[in-house]
Design goal:
226 residues; alpha+beta; Nucleoside Triphosphate Pyrophosphohydrolase; Arc Repressor Mutant, subunit A; 2 domains; seven-stranded mixed β-sheet; three-stranded antiparallel β-sheet; 10 strands; elongated
Length: 226
């Protein structure tokens, strides 16, 4: 640890303070073909050619990290109006080979089929990867960021994050249970799951029934918090 002597002189903002670059990296999760997937990009980076990484970019002097995250998603993927939830800050000294880089990471949930991706000149490839089948070559410390984002998703699925963003507008309780089992990688008891999911008061019964399914299960909708 750096010498902590020096008192207030070491912690005050000074005009000649060292410069570091602030970036945002966004873990975009989608539920596709019955699997939880994450969106990764492949870019022409000198130090990490043919490597995959999270969508990420630098923050300009006139924007916040939240604005930077949304800007970055649009520039690299074409995604617009996506809700991004802050995860944490990464400030290890050797994160980037060129200079000191501090990153604010974010998490976003979408339905891939409703959000077509746009491949821009800045990106070689955009691809959805299953969380249980990530590519071998991942740039920088993004494997660590991905794992942290996955844990954040599991810990905040009913709090900071809106699980309804992963599902169609209307869904059955069975479909919701499968989503939970996929994310948490466990089998849950049907009766206990339904009792608990109704108690947290995040879904509402439309009283409509799903057609073409045996038993005609009711369709539910996610109640977006105010």
């Amino acid at each position: 640890m750096k010498n902590q002597n020096g008192g207030l002189a070491n912690i005050r903002v000074k005009p000649d303070s060292y410069e570091c670059t602030i970036t945002t990296d966004i873990a975009v999760f989608g539920y596709l073909d019955g699997k939880l997937k994450i969106l990764l990009t492949k870019r022409s980076l000198a130090n990490y050619k043919s490597h995959w990484l999270l969508p990420g970019g630098t923050m300009d002097a006139d924007e916040t990290v939240e604005e930077c995250a949304k800007k970055t998603l649009f520039v690299l993927t074409g995604l617009e109006n996506i809700r991004c939830e802050y995860i944490k800050l990464y400030s290890a000294l050797n994160r980037h080979p060129i200079k000191r880089v501090v990153t604010a990471s974010f998490c976003a949930l979408i339905q891939p089929e409703k959000h077509p991706l746009v491949l821009t000149d800045n990106v070689e490839s955009l691809e959805w990867f299953s969380m249980d089948d990530l590519p071998t070559h991942i740039a920088f410390d993004h494997t660590h960021l991905i794992n942290d984002a996955y844990n954040f998703l599991k810990e905040n699925l009913e709090d900071k994050l809106h699980f309804g963003e992963l599902l169609p507008k209307q869904f059955t309780l069975s479909e919701l249970q499968v989503l939970y089992e996929t994310i948490f990688e466990v089998k849950v008891d049907k009766r206990n799951f339904r009792k608990r999911i109704m108690q947290i008061n995040l879904i509402t019964n439309t009283r409509k029934k799903k057609r073409g399914v045996k038993g005609g299960p009711f369709l539910f909708e996610y109640k977006r918090p105010h």
